[in-house]
TrEMBL record:
It comes from Capitella teleta (Polychaete worm). Pfam families: Homeodomain (PF00046). This is Homeobox domain-containing protein. It comes from the Eukaryota. PROSITE patterns: HOMEOBOX_2. Gene3D superfamilies: Homeodomain-like. The lineage of its organism: Eukaryota, Metazoa, Spiralia, Lophotrochozoa, Annelida.
Length: 59
């Protein structure tokens, strides 16, 4: 098994993710799907981005 390729976010995707994060740091599944569609990402990548952002905020 090879290493998974790390997702590189475009500036536009990060702008969408940060904007949504300011509105809600813990979106439910339906919201994650909407945000993922908006940013052109998978729901899982979006979910992990939110998890990582919350973890960073706690530090």
């Amino acid at each position: 098994m090879g290493k998974r390729v790390r997702t590189e976010f475009s500036d536009e995707q990060l702008k969408i993710l940060h904007g949504e994060y300011l509105l809600n740091t813990n979106p439910v599944r339906e919201e994650l799907e909407r945000i993922a569609d908006l940013a052109g990402l998978t729901r899982r990548v979006t979910q992990v981005w939110f998890q990582n952002s919350r973890a960073l905020q706690r530090k």
